Every structure is written in structure tokens, then in C-alpha cells.
Amino acid sequence: MTAKQGIDIVESIKLQMNDSERAKFEKLMSANTKNLNIKIERCLAKLSLKKNYNK
């Protein structure tokens, strides 16, 4: 499955939700995205430290 296909599936599911369900879903996805971004930033920082240490 491509990222585009995954996005299309999620969008079609969201269209079937009522407003309350959609709001809960969006809030959950926003929190997950923030957590993922933090994890990515930490990994990049560790890689940067490792790279600088190995010079």
C-alpha cells in the first residue's frame, strides 16, 4: 500500500463519521503526530551527536 492509498482510505472513513467522532479522531491523530515528530527529532539529535562524536 502506498502512502497515498492509506490517506485515501483514512479520508473515506472520516467521511462516514459523524462530527463528534471526526473531532475525536482528529484530536487523536494530532496527538499522535506530535508524539511522532518528537520521536523523530530525538532520533535526528542522537544521529547528529553520534556523527559529531565520530569525527
Features:
55 residues; mainly alpha; 2 helices
Question: Would you write up a description of this structure?
Answer:
The N and C termini lie far apart (39 Å). It contains two helices and no strands. The chain is elongated. It has a domain at 18-55. With 55 residues, it is mainly α. It is 89% helix and 0% strand.
Instruction: Determine the N-to-C terminus distance.
Output: 39 Å
Q: Which structural class matches the secondary elements?
A: mainly alpha
Rg, Cα atoms, Å: 17 Å
What gross morphology would you assign?
Answer: elongated
Strand content: under 5%
Provide a quick synopsis of the model:
With 55 residues, the chain is mainly α. The chain has helices at residues 3-16, 19-53.
List the SSEs and their pairings.
Elements: H1 3-16, H2 19-53
